[in-house]
What we know:
CATH topology: PH-domain like
Order of helices and strands: EEEEEEEH
CATH superfamily: Pleckstrin-homology domain (PH domain)/Phosphotyrosine-binding domain (PTB)
Oligomer: single chain
CATH class: Mainly Beta
Amino acid sequence: MPLEDFLLPRENIKFQSESTVEYAGKRYQVIVTDSRLVLYARRGMIFKKDDVVTERLSDIQVKYGEKGIIGKRGIIQIQGRIMYQLIGSPSEMKALYQSIIQFL
């Protein structure tokens, strides 16, 4: 099933990350639509399945930080119904943070 099957009627994609981020030990692509933040991944070698996590933009607060000395990682914390921690390289995570903030 493609990503478009998970969009609501008249919901448009505003931003799509070029690289994947880590959330809960899995890799996801980040998509920002008119009304939601969507984490999307297609998994499986033979039997493909979709893995989707969503949160309404109106319900979230976003924070950026970095951890580590040698292997520095960028971390975006998203507080919605639950706390999400998206982890990736600092340069990619800063760009992703700035993109998410402009749609809030």
